[in-house]
Design goal:
Chain lengths: 301, 162
């Protein structure tokens, strides 16, 4: 007992010293708390100024349709995000990611599209459609600079933090995927929130984190399934089957097509094609059904 | 102390058992002429974008083994420098993450792991210290095209994957 107290006291003293003298350690500890991270996100975004470039068109409000990715007007979306709509902020972060190569490296991107289309003639029309779509919609995103405490902010992270700060679970999951650290407490909190209010897109995003579940983690619904053992693609397949648009009309399939998967009609087809054997496909199917059952529990509590 | 180990390192350790490794050499076909000017001295965001573009280029070559999530790619840039990337996600623009410490400058030569072994150039014996003991081989494909014609890919050798 005495020994344990000495060990604990030593640990406490060294932690305090580390916080006092090593700013980096201070940051890492802060990052481990989800609530602190969310608070930070709120503070960061509240300090920011979003400035339209000179000559920007006047924004007109309009209904945001998320039914079809290609029908979303990025100008309207920006307007809704600025007005604090957490869902629009998440979608806008996705829009910036979708447009990133077109905005940052337009010449190279166009070269890629041309080359990939020549290598895979079957994918040419889809890729050209994407290029035309980016040409049409992405310039709207370049009309704004985000000034965050005097520095130009990365719009993807900025809008993800704004959305997560407003309680959007999907954005919070994406931030966790982007983060180099996923602490036990943050992981537990995300799983708990997924159990309480997760919708198909949240399950899809959670699948992007699945490979980082190292320790057993019981599901929050039945407490019988170890989530760390679920096939990493099962989350996405279940989300797609539960209503998330994973068709060629979705942004998801643009990424897959760019990475050589244009021949697939939807994400489910792609996911199953990646399974190395019949037994892996069977496991993916079984796990996808398990996750589908969890999604439907959240929809029909 | 355990928690202080960077997540990326843990990720790499866990992936090493199942992940495939690839080499994308921008000084050689079929990657030659693609993303020229990229080097380890460029901005990280630009390098990650180029890494993703080259991974996409690779995956679009008909008949090659596909790069998927979890794979590790060694990139050899046109200035002779090289570095590695980890495919963290196919569904993000920054999905290929830089692996810190894997950079090798053109002058320092070698190192960093991830290599291509050409059986036609021979290879010495390593005795009991054979570094390739746990490796396997896979076909190496090269693709060419004439003018604006279609790409034609053939197996030209063997890559050794460790």
């Amino acid at each position: 007992m005495k020994k344990a107290i000495i060990v604990l006291a030593t640990l406490a003293v060294s932690t305090v010293l580390a916080i006092l003298f090593f700013p980096r350690a201070k940051r890492e500890i802060a990052n481990e708390s989800t609530s602190q991270a969310t608070e930070q996100a709120e503070q960061d975004t509240s300090k920011s100024i979003i400035e339209p470039h000179q000559g920007a068109e006047k924004i007109t409000a309009g209904a945001l349709s998320a039914a079809n990715w290609f029908s979303i007007d990025f100008t309207e979306l920006t307007h809704q995000a600025i007005n604090g709509d957490a869902s629009a902020q998440w979608t806008l972060a996705k829009a910036y990611d979708y447009c990133r190569m077109f905005i940052d490296e337009e010449e190279n991107f166009r070269k890629d599209i041309k080359t990939f289309g020549e290598m895979n003639p079957g994918s040419r029309s889809y890729l050209i459609r994407i290029e035309n779509d980016m040409e049409r919609r992405c310039p709207a995103l370049t009309r704004y600079d985000i000034d965050q405490s005097g520095k130009k902010a990365d719009p993807i992270k900025f809008w993800l933090q704004a959305s997560a700060g407003s309680g959007n679970l999907t954005a919070n999951l994406r931030l966790a995927a982007l983060s180099q650290k996923l602490s036990d407490s943050r992981r537990s909190k995300l799983i708990q929130e997924l159990g309480e209010r997760g919708q198909p897109e949240d399950f899809f995003e959670f699948g992007q984190l699945a490979h980082r579940l190292k320790e057993p983690a019981l599901d929050p619904w039945t407490k019988t399934v170890d989530l760390s053992k679920i096939h990493h693609e099962a989350w996405a397949v279940a989300a797609c089957r539960s209503g998330l648009d994973c068709s060629k009309q979705s942004s998801i399939m643009f990424y897959i097509c760019y990475m050589g998967g244009c021949r697939y009609e939807n994400y489910q087809q792609y996911a199953f094609s990646q399974a190395a054997s019949e037994s892996e496909r069977a496991r993916l199917e079984r796990d996808a059904q398990t996750i589908q059952a969890f999604i439907s529990r959240n929809r029909n509590p | 102390m355990k928690k202080r180990i960077p997540a990326l390192a843990l990720l790499l350790i866990s992936i090493v058992v199942v992940a495939a490794t690839f080499t994308i050499d921008t000084t050689k076909l079929p990657y030659l002429g693609h993303r020229t000017g990229t080097s380890i001295h460029n901005e990280p965001a630009a390098r990650m974008a180029d890494m993703r573009s080259l991974a996409g280029f690779h995956n679009n070559i008909p008949g090659v083994k596909q790069i998927v999530k979890g794979d590790i790619i060694t990139y050899k840039w046109s200035d002779g420098s090289s570095e590695k990337g980890l495919v963290d996600s196919l569904l993000r623009s920054d999905g290929v993450q830089l692996i810190p410490g894997s950079e090798t400058s053109s002058s320092s030569g070698g190192g960093g792991g991830g290599f291509t072994y050409d059986p036609y150039e021979g290879g010495g014996g390593f005795g009991e210290d054979d570094p390739f003991a746990m490796c396997f081989t896979e076909p190496r494909t090269a693709c060419i095209r004439v003018g604006g014609g279609p790409w034609e890919c053939t197996v030209v050798g063997t890559n050794i994957v460790c």
